[in-house]
Amino acid sequence: MSDRQSYKSDLSDERWALIEPVITSWKARHPSVSGHQGNYDMREIVNALLYQSRTGCQWDYFPHDLPPAGAVQYYFCKWRDDGTDQTIHDLLRWQVREKRGRLADPSLVVLDTQSLHAAAGVPAGTTGRDAAKKVPGRKRGLAVDVLGLVIAVVVLAASVHDNAFGTALLDKVAAGAGTVQKALVDQGFKKTVVDHGKQVGIDVEVVERNPAETGFVPQHKRWIVEQTNGILMLHRRLVRDYEHRPASAESRVYWAISRRMSKMLTGTSTPAWRGA
């Protein structure tokens, strides 16, 4: 760790210890051409990613006491493309679940989507308009367990129907968590998703809203995905989609939830929006 003044988003020693083995192993498998270990401390690279996730700053506006934006972006893209970000996320998720007395992988997930405005400069070919919510940009689909931990994430144009999100999420869930037997969805997901669930061995239940209820009424078990969406909104980089590639937007979710889970495992609190 450098001698710079710390940021609230920095990893503590205890939290870094949870992530460090994966990063050290990755670094050993990816030596530089010249054989040296690189100019930047890997903990500082991760700190810089978490700083950007929390504050939403642009690459060109990185603080000068963090590693250069080019170096941070290099590792962000490498870890996005080879799945290291998801490896870290999944290892932390398994530990959190086991700490709560649950099996490593869940038997039930909750699916939902959230439409986000896209920032200027995001390629138009990867965006669209959500006709129902009147939001131009991208849509983020989540599959979470009953603890609100992310099992799968899919980011596509906002114009894509929830059915496509549902089938894509179910495919990811089936591939990554074979223990899942049931998925709860809202009425935005149709019979196509239910039928696809049967193909991958997951019973999809459409939770219908009580027509007598008005306003926002949390639905049993389904409310947990709304909580996860709220947690993601604490990360300013995720409030609006700034990423040129949908895969980068998905990676941002993994880093944000990994940050949260490292705090859960070490018993530290998350600063409120106005305090961070």
What does this entry look like structurally?
β5, α6 (about 190-200) and β6 form a beta-alpha-beta unit. The two termini are about 20 Å apart. This protein is α/β, with parallel strands linked by helices. Strands 1, 2, 3, 4, 5 and 6 form a 6-stranded mixed beta sheet that branches. The model has no long low-confidence stretch (mean pLDDT about 90). Helices cover about 40% and strands about 15% of the residues.
Topology of helices and strands:
Blueprint: H1 13-29, H2 42-55, H3 69-82, H4 84-99, E1 108-117, E2 128-130, E3 135-144, E4 150-157, H5 162-176, E5 182-185, H6 191-199, E6 203-206, H7 223-232, H8 246-266
Helix pairs in contact: 1-4, 1-8, 2-3, 2-8, 4-8, 5-6
Radius of gyration: 19 Å
Rounded mean pLDDT score: 91
Strand tally, please? 6
Compressed to H and E, one letter per element, the order equals HHHHEEEEHEHEHH
Task: Please state the structural category.
Answer: alpha/beta
Oligomeric state of this protein: single chain
Reported for the largest beta sheet, the result is: 6 strands, mixed
Low-confidence stretches: none
State the shape: globular
Q: How far apart, in Å, are the first and last alpha carbons? A: 21 Å
As a percent range, the share of strand residues is: 5-15%
Task: Figure out the total of helices.
Answer: 8
Measured as a percent range, the helix fraction is 40-55%
